[in-house]
Structures are given as structure tokens and as C-alpha cells.
Amino acid sequence: MERILFLTNESRGAANAVTRLITDGGYEVVVKPTVKDWPDDHAAGPTALVVICQQPPLDYLKTCRLIREHSTLPILVVRGRSDMVDMVVALETGADDFVAEPYKGTALVARIRALLRRHRLAKSELLWSRLLG
User: Which long-range contacts (CB under 8 A, 24 or more apart) does 110-118 make?
Assistant: First the structure.
């Protein structure tokens, strides 16, 4: 089962609802409040990172930058703001996808699946290019 690291500062009820959606989509979910837990979870092998940030202190841009410095792990950012600048900055800072609230749970899980599919495909293509090199 693929493991999703879910960083959020949402209320426990909201975080549980999103966790349930992702779990029902067939993924194991580990919920953490900040990126400070990243090294331990990275060693355990998450296959993607979902960041839902509604307010400080969880700085999703800093999180994206920090993860990108160390990993190609797919990152999906979910924000309450739907402003174009916010989305562009997140993508330019290292996020692979961006979802603005409100969103449908099935759409969130579909985006996670698509993100993982693209990531697996990119890794596969890299392996083939090295083998055929």
C-alpha cells in the first residue's frame, strides 16, 4: 500500500475527514503538523506528500523548498486561497500540483493518483534511459 505523508495545520476534525478520504482511496496516511517530521517519514518511505495549509505556522512554501532540496517526492498543495499568484508561487517553489478549496474529495484522491502515476512513469523512463543509455 502506498504511503502518503499529510502535513496539515487544519483542525483535527477537518484533518480526519481528509485522512479518511485518502485512506478510502486506497492509501496509508501519516498525519504530521510540520515538515520537522520529514526526515523520519522520508526514511520510512512515503510515496507522496499532501500539504494542506490554512494558516501559519505551517509555511507551505518553505515546506516545498525544503522537500525539493532533498527529494523528488511528489507534492500536492491544498489551499483555501484560489488566487492565481498563490498557485503559481507554490508550483514554482516545488509543488507538483495545487488544489484550491473548495474541492470534491474524489477529485483530491484522483489528483493524488495522477501525481503518483506521473512520478512512477518519470522514474521508469529515467531507469530505461539509463539502461539503454
Answer: 111/76, 112/4, 112/22, 112/25, 112/27, 112/48, 112/50, 112/76, 113/25, 115/48, 115/74, 115/76, 116/2, 116/47, 116/48, 116/74, 118/74
What are the start-end ranges of the H helices in 3-104?
12-24, 38-44, 60-70, 84-93
Closest CA to 7 of 26, 23, 29, 24: 29
Rounded CA-CA distance 49/68 in Å is 11
pLDDT in tens, 102-119: 888 899 999 999 999 988
Residue 81, SS3? Answer: coil
Rounded-to-integer distance, Cα 41 and Cα 24, Å: 21
In tens, the pLDDT along 41-99 reads 455 567 777 877 766 656 888 888 888 888 888 999 888 767 888 889 889 999 999 99
Q: CATH number of the domain at 88, please.
A: 3.40.50.2300
Total structural domains within the chain: 1
